[in-house]
Amino acid sequence: MVKKTGFGLIGTGLWGEMHARTYASSPAAELKAICDLRKDRAREIAGKYGAENCYTDYRKLLERDDISAVSIATPDFAHTEIAVAAAEAGKHILIEKPLATSVEECEKIIAAVKAAGNIKFMVDFHNRWNPPFAQTKTAIEEGELGKPMLMYVRLNDAISVPTNMLSWASKSEVVWFVGAHAVDLARWLFDDEVCKVYAVSRAGVLKKKGVDTPDFYESILEFRNGGVATIENCWILPNSLPTVIDFKFQVIGSEGAAYIDLSSNGVIHKYTGEEASNPDVFVFPTIHGKPMGFGIESIRHFVDCVVNDKEPMTTGEDGLAVTRIITAIQESSRKGEPVEL
C-alpha cells in the first residue's frame, strides 16, 4: 500500500471543488479536511469527496499534523493572511491565481514561504497545462515559429460571471479574474519580462447592475526583448453565448504563426430532444470515471511535487511578476498613459 499524503482545502467555490475532486481521486493524496466560511458548503464538499472534517476557521485546519499540504482557493483578495499562516504552519501551498492583488502582499507571502524553509509553493496558472498552449510553447522552443514577435490574447467572460457566479465581483476586477491567466501566458510563451504597459478600461454596464467594477480592459504589454502582446479582458459579453468563456489566441513569429480558438467548447456540439450543448473536453471532463483535463493536471502536478520532492513549474516569483504587471495595467488605465516596470 502506498502511504498517502494528507491535503487540505481552504475555499470551496467552483475551482475549489476541483481541488477537492483532484485530491480525492489521487492515489498519492488523501483529502483530510475542508474549510469554507459557509459551513453548509464545507460539509457538502467534505461529504462529496470523503474528507474527514470540515471547518469555518482555516486556522483549525492548519493546526492538523496529518495535513502536509493545502490548497488556497478563496477569492483573489483573500489570499494573503491565509497563505502567510499556512507557510508559518509549515504546509506546502498551492494557491489559486492571482497570488495576491498587490505587490506588497505578494512579497509578504513569498517572504513567509522563504522563512518557513523547505516547503513547496505553487501558483495555479493552469493554462500552462492547456494542450494547445503547451504545444505552442514546444513549437516556440524548437524554433518552428522563429522569434515570437506579436501576441494577442483574448480572454473574456459572459456577464453572468460577475453578476451571478461571483458574489464578490465588486471586490475584484476582470483583469484579476481572467487577466492573470492571459498575462501569465504571455510571459511564459515569450519567456521574457514586461518593461512597459499601456492600458485603457471602461465602466458603466456592470455598475448599472449593481456590480461596481470595470467592464473591460484593453492592454498592450512591451517585453524587454522586443515582443508585444495585446490582451483583451471583458466581463460584459451576452449570456446567450454557448458557454461563459470567450478565449482566442495568436502568436506571430519571425518564421511562423500559431492560432488557437478555445471559445465555446467548439470541439463537440451535442443535441438532444430538449437542448443543445457544447460539453467541456479540455478543462475538467470526466473520462472513464476519472477527472481529467488541464484544470486537473496542474493540481496533480502539485501533488507530484509534494509527494516526490520536486520543484513546481509555476512559482511565487511568477505570481509576483503577474501581479506587478496587472497593477501597472490598472495604473496605466487610471492615468491614461504608459507605465514602465
Number of helices: 12
Structural class call reads alpha/beta
* Major sheet details: 7 strands, mixed
Our estimate of the beta-strand percent is 25-35%
Order of secondary-structure elements: EHEHEHEHEHEHEHHHEHEEEEEEEEHHE
Span between N and C termini?
A: 51 Å
Tell me the quaternary state.
single chain
Overall pLDDT: 96
Percent of residues in helical segments?
25-40%
Order of neighbouring strands in the sheet with most strands:
12-11-7-10-9-8-17
Shape: globular
Low-confidence stretches: none
Taking all Cα atoms into account, the compactness measure Rg is 20 Å
Secondary structure: number of strands: 17
Key features?
26% strand; globular
Protein model, in words:
The protein is an alpha/beta fold and 341 residues long. Helices cover 36% and strands 26% of the residues. The chain contains twelve helices and 17 strands. Strand 15 and strand 16 form a beta hairpin.
